[in-house]
Design a protein that fits this description.
This protein is mainly α. Helix content is about 80%, strand content about 0%. It has one domain: Four Helix Bundle (Hemerythrin (Met), subunit A).
Length: about 190
């Protein structure tokens, strides 16, 4: 069953990407007031980074399972794993943005300045860049999967874009765990 017209995949992916990135950059840039989100107890805000690292680790597993499943020809398992990965990504991003807006901005790095400049910032920058690049790729691959029957996907860019998105996604989630470790474990 076709849910999205194949001709509309690119424009829909583009619109979803622009809207998603606008929300992310507005939240990260302090353009959304704290009143834009409901208040939460401090323990909830404190728990979000810990929940997000668990979500990230789980997403690494589901992306890997999905990647291996399609290499073995198990389309149903691949679909389930990749939809779970996307749901985990949406959950992670929702929690992250909620905390960002609710606390008034990103958490300051508690470690030494030299570590901040030469380790933390480069890792964070690569993590964010890959996450931003992944958004349109993920929408495109996901929408193609909904627009085409399984046999028809072989005649699209789904596999090529999906491989690229999955690889970048894995690196981004892994670097996010490193950022968590620097912020919440090392210091």
């Amino acid at each position: 069953m076709e849910y999205v017209s194949r001709e509309r995949v690119r424009p829909i992916a583009a619109v979803l990407s622009v809207v998603s990135l606008a929300v992310v950059f507005a939240a990260a840039g302090g353009r959304l007031p704290q009143s834009a989100v409901p208040g939460a107890p401090e323990w909830v805000l404190t728990a979000i980074p810990h929940a997000n690292v668990a979500i990230s680790a789980t997403a690494i597993v589901t992306i890997t399972v999905g990647w291996r499943a399609i290499r073995r020809g198990d389309v149903a398992r691949h679909r389930a794993a990749m939809l779970a990965s996307f749901a985990l990504f949406v959950t992670f991003l929702t929690l992250y943005l909620y905390r960002l807006v609710a606390t008034g901005g990103p958490q300051p790095f508690p470690g030494p300045e030299v570590l901040y400049q030469f380790v933390y910032l480069p890792i964070l920058a690569i993590h964010i860049l890959l996450a931003v690049v992944c958004i349109p790729l993920l929408y495109y691959a996901l929408l193609l999967a909904f627009a085409c029957p399984v046999d028809g996907l072989r005649r699209t860019n789904h596999a090529r874009v999906g491989r690229l998105a999955a690889g970048l996604w894995l690196i981004s989630f892994s670097l996010g765990i490193v950022v968590y470790g620097l912020l919440h474990v090392a210091y």
